[in-house]
């Protein structure tokens, strides 16, 4: 069964779309001026930690005013992530009364991340940065297949701004009640794969890909159950449709995305006597399609590798992203930098 059609939508360039898109965090520029006191930031061992998602990693150390030879007391601190386009602040803190600090490192997404602690400049002291520390967040299951098994929707890689929280809305529209929990779980899997946060903005009556209504979605992601009479892209054996609209200003990025799910999707029927295994099967079938369509929304294309969620035919009903899916999603995520 063909699971989905990858909907590639022409670029939309609407006046003012870029105006509200301000990167959430900027890296601090570290410059030393001779008139200012020099700041040193020490960070303790280990130089490399490895944890499972949401495992605890802290960076501890101390800040000194190296010119005065005194502790850097109550200095503001930025915990910065190294991305493909520079350092990005992902947490903040401050030193204590003796110049010491402890910062918790975000470990909610997979990958090999590099961090540093920066004390921004004050009126009297220059900024200082610690040496880098590596933290690897491991995938908590055996990811199937090859990391090379991924493609992208557009000829060049188009991304959402990973430094903004992306809102999403669901139109249940008489579809399976399990959808709400499945969508939540699916976005959690996307967050773990990309470092991008998503926010549940409740329900909507909007339907993505409805004839004549293209370009009328709210910013962010809309997921709706519907029928082929409303969304012609669901004709034939397609049970889901997913894609995003993008603009080229100021740089190429997605602005809204949608998932349309076919109410003719052949799910096992539920009754008051349904066993746990039937309930689980229904949930898994819905999730395998939602994960696939959200992969398109994020920017992934199809692959021939049957071990990946992004294979267009839903034979295996995967409910976790494979190694190729994860490698592709990482290239669309926070480690690539803000937009
Ligand atoms: Zn597809």
TrEMBL record:
GO molecular function terms attached to this record: metallopeptidase activity
Domain Peptidase metallopeptidase: 156-323
Pfam family, one: Peptidase_M10
Catalytic EC class: hydrolase
The UniProt record lists the keyword Heme: no
EC number: 3.4.24.-
SMART domains, per the entry: ZnMc
Highest taxon listed in the record's lineage: Bacteria
SUPFAM superfamilies attached to this UniProt entry: Metalloproteases ('zincins'), catalytic domain
Signal peptide: 1-27
Keywords from the UniProt entry: Hydrolase, Metal-binding, Metalloprotease, Protease, Signal, Zinc
Annotated InterPro entries: MetalloPept_cat_dom_sf, Pept_M10_metallopeptidase, Peptidase_Metallo
The keyword Protease is annotated on this UniProt entry: yes
Protein's name according to its UniProt entry: Matrixin family metalloprotease
Protein species of origin: Nocardioides eburneus
